[in-house]
Amino acid sequence: MNDLKESVEKPVQWMLVRRGAGNGSGAAAAAAGERWSVDRVEALFELPFNDLIHRAQQVHREHFDANEVQLSTLLSIKTGGCPEDCAYCPQSVHFDTGVAAGKLLGVDEVAAAARAAREQGASRFCMGAAWREPKDRDIEKVAELVRAVKAEGLEACCTLGMLSDGQAHALKDAGLDYYNHNLDTAPEAYGRIISTRTFDDRLRTLERVRDAGIGVCCGGIVGMGESRRERAGLVAQVANLEPYPESVPINQLVRVEGTPLADTEALDPLEFVRTIAVARITMPRARVRLSAGRREMSDAVQALCFLAGANSIFYGDKLLTTGNPDWEADQRLLGTLGMRTC
Ligand code: SAM
Ligand code: DTB
Ligand code: SF4
After folding, report:
1. C or N terminus of the chain, fewer CB within 10 Å?
2. Residue 83: phi, psi to the nearest 5?
3. Nearest to residue 173, comparing CAs of 131, 134, 142, 152?
């Protein structure tokens, strides 16, 4: 138990060290670039299941109301035809998945979807675009969409691919609250999944988002055939962002016919729960979002995810192009668990 206590508390000390408040040995660790080493994160994964969940629930209760879940609704504002080759993604132009490419949606359509989401109880509206990177003229249009979402009284989030400094600032000026940009998988696994950009490209956009004063939403996907160590590597990378993200989506791969990962072996549901718990322990104050893949999970597995510290979901019958449980099913599940929404 002492080791675990140290695991949870150490990052805070190291964060101070990295900001110049520590001693020499801490500075050496900081220079090595690790607050959560992959070994330490992997050691959390290796704990007996009950100990891991207990620890995650303790950390969760120190920082959040354990019976509250935040609801985010997604809308694909520009679907398909993406030039990137992310092996998991149904929207890549490289794979034949039957997803038709569309144009950027207009303000009225987006405002109506945001209103409907708010009426169903969502507090955040997340707009996704199948771009490698937006053009400046796209940003002008998305800024209008952000203003429309804000006018509906919702938090606004976008995920549009890589951003320049100027684009991040323009989105901030429009009132954008969060930007989602996932690291997706461990650095050493990245090349197996995507060849058209690098892990460092992702880190650079995250830095620009942070510097522009926008909240960071960053997580990844598990169940892509990665090893446990690679899952630990992904969590370590996200947890070592400085500061760690406000929102951390943990996606289970949605296996879409036509993508190279369509036939990947399903991840053991308890390993998914472990990933949530490890994200909670390593990022105590983050909203850990139980994200894609819920339609394939039983109520019992989702309940375990909440017990492990997940406190946010995507809410609404569609993610971007694939299905999600419908509003009624989620209201029923959250009601059964006695959870309040925010
Ligand atoms: N094009 C932008 C980008 O990739 O940053 C934004 C949209 S992209 C669809 C947003 C995220 O959706 C990806 O980073 C990935 O984590 C997630 N995603 C895409 N396809 C998925 C799938 N089949 N299963 C789980 N998550 C997926
Ligand atoms: C995130 O981490 N997951 C969401 C959101 N951020 C943009 C997207 C999941 C997409 C699942 C596949 C699809 O529906 O196209
Ligand atoms: Fe394009 Fe984003 Fe899909 Fe990759 S994940 S193919 S960048 S839409």
Report:
1. N
2. -75, -15
3. 142
Whether 197 is catalytic is no
Beta bridge pairs of residue 159:
128
Separation of 76 CA from ligand 3 center, angstroms? 12
Query: Which of 86, 158, 218, 305 is labelled catalytic?
Result: 86
Q: What is the pLDDT of residues 293-336, one digit of tens each?
A: 999 999 999 999 999 999 999 999 999 999 999 999 999 999 99
Q: How far apart are CA 217 and CA 239, in angstroms?
A: 12
Q: ∠ at Cα 97 (305, 292), nearest 5°?
A: 10
Closest atom, ligand 3, to C-alpha of 130:
8
List pocket residues of ligand 2, CB cut-off 6 Å. Answer: 74, 90, 126, 128, 159, 180, 182, 219, 249, 251, 254, 291-292, 319-322
Contacts of 27 (CB under 8 A, 6+ apart): 17
Asked whether the whole model's pTM tops 0.90, one would answer yes
- Candidates 18, 231, 274, 289; catalytic one: 289
The first and second tokens of residue 236, run together, are 């370590």
Percent above pLDDT 90 for the chain = 90
pLDDT at 134 over 60: yes
